[in-house]
Amino acid sequence: MTDTAIIEIAMQTMMVALKLSAPILVTALSVGFAVSLFQSMTQIQEFTLAFVPKVVAVGIAIVISGNWMLHTMINFTNDLFDMIPALLA
Description:
This protein is an all-alpha fold. The protein has helices at residues 3-42, 47-88. It has one domain (3-88). Helix content is 92%, strand content 0%. The termini are close together.
């Protein structure tokens, strides 16, 4: 196992983590921005107004992209297991 292989696995791991977290983070960011804009325009400063829509939107994003996320993680794990013999040789 060379240092190049370790760096390649680490890069693949970071890319998969970025891909898996992107739908959730983008959803939370966009809903948070919209709610913050609404609160600043109406001057309503209520904590639940900022929290509840984000939780609902992130839940919907997980339901919509969950199947893709699961398949991405399974494919990555299968690729890692397939690499084991080459890494040991």
